[in-house]
Every structure is written in structure tokens, then in C-alpha cells.
Fold this protein.
Amino acid sequence: MKHDHSHLAQHISYSTFIFLIGILIGIILDVWVPWEFTTHTLRAIGFGWILLVVAPLLLFWGDQNRSTCYYHDEPHHSCKGLGAGPYAYTRHPKYVAFVLLVIGLGLILNAIPMLIIALILFLLFTFIVIPSEEKVLAEQLSNYEEYRKKVPMWF
């Protein structure tokens, strides 16, 4: 019996779309209302660049360790590879990386609107995107609830 993976694929594409729209809105708001948050920009810019380097590395690491069991043909199966790589520290390294990227941009641009967008993305992912995605994962993976209890959503 083939299992429909379209729900999980939709969640993944929606989250990427939300992230990209968030960055676009943050940049537009920064141009329209240029609120600065610090005069110590060198420190903030340096930390922002660190986040801009770490976030793509986290995305890459997560992509390399993403379990193929999410796309298994049988519904509600067990997955031994669950929790490998960054997934041992956070259930959603992609969303952690997205938020870190926006915070990094906010620090580099010295832009309060971008930091507000990072907070909004964090809240959207925490209360809307992730619970919906985890519902699908719990239906697909028999050991997802056990994994969910062991590994935090964010850190």
C-alpha cells in the first residue's frame, strides 16, 4: 500500500515560503522604517555574520542527516535513523536555521524590523507549522512520539 507523502511535502514547502516572505517583509520594513537598535554595530555585525555562516551549515547538516523514513511507503512504521545528526539536538534544524538566518540579517543590517520578523517566524513555526507537521510525522512514524519526548522542538 502506497502512503501519500503530499501532506509532509506541503508542510516543507509552506515553511520555506513563509521564511522567504518573512525575509522580504523584513527588508521592505527596514527600508520603509529604518529602526536601528544599537550603536555598537561592529559587535552586532560580527555576531550576525557568525549566524549567517552557522545557519546554512545547520541546513546542510540537517539535509545530510534527514531520515529517509519520512518518505517510507508504509504508514506508521518505525524508523531507526530518527535522531541522527542535528536531529539529536533539535527536532527541526531547518526552522532553527531559518530563524538564525533572519536574526543574523537583522544584526548585520542593524534592523529592528528584521528582528521582529524573526520573532514572528519563531511564533508561526512554534504554534502553527511545527504542530501541524508533527501530527503528520506521528501518523507516519510509530516511534515519533518517543523521539518527540527525548528531543526538544528548538534546542
Residues 6-150 form one domain.
